Here is the input.
Amino acid sequence: MREPTLKKIIDKLELVLQNKLTKEEVADWAAEYVMTYDHLVTDLVVFDFLTVVSGLDTLESPGEYMYDDEDIRDWINQYSEK
Here is the structure.
């Protein structure tokens, strides 16, 4: 498994905004890199972004996500500048 790039993470978040991937799918994908030693990420900015994205499916209450589309867009804008 190759180390993801900022672009790859942004692409996945954009698919969430387009309802082509779920928040759970993308959070699980990011968590594979954050929670295991099998897929080491050497770029600290990428690792930081993956850490943020791994919490994408966090619930504030049953059926209510902590992060909404505006948060996702903010993350995309923030990490696009790096």
Remarks:
- The radius of gyration is 12 Å.
- The helical segments are 6-17, 23-34, 44-53, 69-80.
- Residues 47 and 56 are 15 Å apart (CA to CA).
- The chain has a mean pLDDT of 94.
